[in-house]
Amino acid sequence: MKRISTLLMVVTFVFLSCETEPIKSDALDAVNATSKSLNSDNCTVDLLPDLPEIVNACAEAKPGSKSYLDLVIANGTLAGDYAAWCIDVARTLNAGDCFEANVFNSYEPIPAGVVDSPENFDLINWILNQDFVGELSENGVDAYTIGDVQWAMWELIDDANCIACTYLNPFNVGRANEIVSFAIANGAGYKPGGGDVLAVVLQPTDGKQVVIIPYYIECQPEIPCDPCDGKVTELTLKNNGDGANVKVVQKKDDVVVFDAYVDAGATFSFSGKDKNGTLGTEIIIYVDNDEHTRIHTSCSKPIGPGLISGDFEVVRGASLKGGELCPVDTPPDGGDCGECEGKVTKLTLQNTGIDANIKVVQKKDDLVVFDEFVNSGALFSFSGIDKKGTLGTEIIIYINETENTRIHTSCSKPIGPGLISGDFIVVGGASLKGGELCPVDTPPDGGDCGECDGKVTKLTLQNNGNDAVIKVVQKKDEVAIFEEFVSSGSSFSFSGKDKNGTLDTEIIIYVGGIEHTRIHTSCSKPIGPGLISGDFEVVGGASLKGGDLCPVDTPPGGGDCGECEGKVTKLTLKNNGNTASIRVAQKKDDITVFQGNVATGAPFSFSGLDKSGTLGTEIIIYVDGKEHVRVHTSCSKPIGTGLKIGDFEVLGGASLNGGELCPVDVPSVPPTNGDCGECEGKATNLILQNNGGQALIRVEQKDGAAVFEATVAAGDSFSFSGTDKNGTLGTEIAIYVNGVKHTSIHTSCSKPLGPGLVSGDFKVLGGASLNGGEFCPL
To answer: Using CA atoms, how far apart are residues 13 and 731, in angstroms rounded to an integer?
Structure first.
């Protein structure tokens, strides 16, 4: 059955006298056809208008001039004259009757017992909007009458239809059934559009007949909106709780932006009061002086109409740089939570194991944060006691003095309600900067596993190839740790034999005396159940500090590949451009590594010629003597099969320490004029734009030398150059606004730097580095 929703609507007074001698009608099956809505491309229709809960109405005439009865509502938001219809054969409503009625929207859930078949309200709404009365019926001779339409409605919405049908005359069952058939064929899922009518249900409180009135809906122009940008400046909230005194406070400066009594269901608005007219990074909402919920207003999390936090729903708002806020979906858990940020401060766990003494210890400082007897199924809570009030990076949980499990509390791994670790389930918690923790999914394997940490100590592999003698060797010391005959489909296990009991950084697997594949065991790449390398699949294992390995996804390419590491050594490219003379040169030493004519669609290969056999940090590709594109080969940017660079596509390649390159999914690199490069050798100069307010800006190198100090207007740009012995800005610059440190920018080239980088109120527009020249956009 279709689910229809009810909304309280205005009651209309209709002079109606429905039949009191019902006869049963065959039940109508739910229909599956879909009717088009009349919504416009540039406006929206609200099918849930704000309607009163109760109205007073009077029925003036039955039959009515254009419907089964004429009804009047004298006052309120639904005041007016209505062409009403009966949807309840068993009761009576006569001309001249006045009544009080409950109001329901036919597109919201209606209380049980009000209507017999509310699942067919989509069909009723469709009929209301077709203007059948006066139109020729299928026989092309007779016109549909008010009685035909009323009979069709009863047939669809009531569990009975009329017998004498006194007030329907003239009517014809054949014509009425045509309307029923049309509705079933075309009305399933129908929603009125702009200019159409919506069926509003009026249920008299004194037991008279239930009727519907047509409520006209307008197509409202859509308000342009954008995602939150630059902090929220204003909000309008709806109180979905009880009437109460509501106070809203900006968290950072404790400024009150709203403090008044708000009725249940009412909306209220407020604006930011910080120096930029924003609400800062977060607001706290108090209900009757008790903190109720918090809403992030920093734009770091989705915010807009539809967001629900506690008893409050955002109905509109605006941000400093983005204007009107667009609607958003409320995260599971109502939005009163955030991702772990800045380490975990407190946790509530459930003991799913035996009754026992539970001790929780912060790993780093060995401080005990909990040590008590906990019954099976019971909850227990604890808070961090390091200098910032956090639990540090990891906690160790002991059951009766035996270590049971460890939980990462550094926020480097997902943590929140639902996480399972050992005999414990996280049911609540908070982090230093993210507030209450949102629910998370426990990794496959129940959470009793960890990421590889401290090198792999043991592995279990499955042989997906042929029966063969398998030999596994630790690469570094060439110690054989396994050598036996293994049948196809069988699994085998081995453990590390270096001084720490690990497999060191890599193992080599030989099949029938021939090297077949290698697996990184240094934990520098994902490893765990599910990883495939050659004919072998990891089905289990452990690492020195992380315990049992969690499942991982095998990279595209079957696992016989790795991320670029230690610079690229060789590449195979495909020429997607015209047939041309192609020359490839290493940028640093201008050594030509390839030169020749390459046809359209043809591949060509080359290898590095520097002292390590690599291509250096970058290659330049020339087409018919002109520079066409540059390719970073330093491994500082993704590179691998599938990468498109100008007219060329990477078909294969390898790096010095990572072996064969895996496929990558990154934007294509457009052709360049060679006038920009990656940051290399520290930044020498920068051009910044001030996206904050007008202020005195001072820029200092890490050694304290000021490289810029002046008043900069909002939106203006300014530039400066490095003054260290190499003419660079050193490893980092600090930017002060009106004497207060505002942000820092890494200029050591250890992090991406170039046009487009935003730090605080400042955006990089341009700059250069010592060895890389002008910066390329990020």
So the answer is: 79
pLDDT for residue 234: 96
Sheet holding 356-362, edge to edge: 368-374, 356-362, 394-399, 402-408
- Tokens describing residue 379: 């909850």
- List b or e across 30-55, with b for residues whose CB sees 16 or more CB atoms inside 10 angstroms: ebeeebeeeeeeeeebebebebeebb
The two structure tokens encoding residue 646: 């100008």
Q: Does residue 337 contact residue 437 with C-beta atoms inside 8 Å?
A: yes
| 3-state secondary structure (DSSP) of residue 179 | helix
DSSP of 648-661: EEEEEEEETTTEEB
Looking up tokens 């990184």, which residue turns up? 520
SS3 334: helix
DSSP string across 365-390: T--EEEEEEE-TT-EEEEE--STTSS
Question: d(Cα 492, Cα 539) in Å, to the nearest integer?
Answer: 10
20: number of CA atoms within 13 Å, CB side?
A: 7
Separation in Å, CA 638 to CA 66, 564, 664, 752: 71, 7, 7, 13
CA distance 778 to 761: 18
Task: Give the number of other CB atoms < 10 A from CB of residue 482.
Answer: 17
pLDDT score recorded for residue 81: 95
How far apart (Å, rounded) are the C-alpha atoms in residues 460 and 479?
18
pLDDT score, position 157: 95
Q: 156 and 180 in contact (C-beta within 8 Å)?
A: yes
Whether a cis peptide bond, with omega within 30° of 0, leads into 755 is: no
Alpha carbon of 219 to those of 44, 195, 316: distances in Å?
5, 7, 19
Contacts of 699 (CB under 8 A, 6+ apart): 706, 707, 708, 709, 720, 733, 734, 735, 736
Task: Name the pTM for this structure.
Answer: 0.35
Q: What is the arithmetic mean of pLDDT over 284-313? A: 87
Taking only the tens place, the pLDDT of each residue in 87-133 is 999 899 999 999 999 999 999 989 999 999 999 999 999 999 999 99
Q: Count other Cβ atoms within 10 Å, centred on residue 709.
A: 12
Q: Are 384 and 407 spatial neighbours (Cβ–Cβ below 8 Å)?
A: no
Rounded to whole angstroms, the Cα distance separating 423 from 496 reads 29
d(CA 163, CA 395): 77
Mean pLDDT to the nearest integer, 352-363: 91
Say whether 517 sits in a helix, a strand or coil.
strand
